[in-house]
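ARCHIVE CARD
Drawer: 12
Card no.: 0347
Subject: one protein chain, sequence and derived structure
Cross-reference: see card 0346
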Amino acid sequence: MPARNTKQKEAIRAALESAGRPLTADEVLARAKSAVSGLGAATVYRNLRTLLDESWLAEVQLPGEVTRYELSGKGHHHHFHCRLCGQVFELPACRGDFPALAPKGFEVTGHEVILYGYCPGCAPPPRRPRA
């Protein structure tokens, strides 16, 4: 039996759809709260679990970080993690022939690539050459 749609669930969906990047549960709560006052963390977590179970969402796991959530069905891709603000952004494709990097006789069954650095909002200004 499919879960029912509530105004809370719709606000959570809208927050994830409009973000354009993976969000933590706290980020989902902050964005969805503007549409549904009184929305709580337990409701967000319950709805995130339901959306995962419905395959509408996918988890994004980065080492040492809290789980983030993104819309599912995007195909294989990787992520960029800003070292200053902590936001995670999607990289649109996979460019590597990673099986070729494995030692002879090894079978590669999957891979994850995470780029680290600074997003445009956090990047330091470019250095000017000294005259």
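Annotation on reverse: The radius of gyration is 18 Å. The chain has a mean pLDDT of 91.
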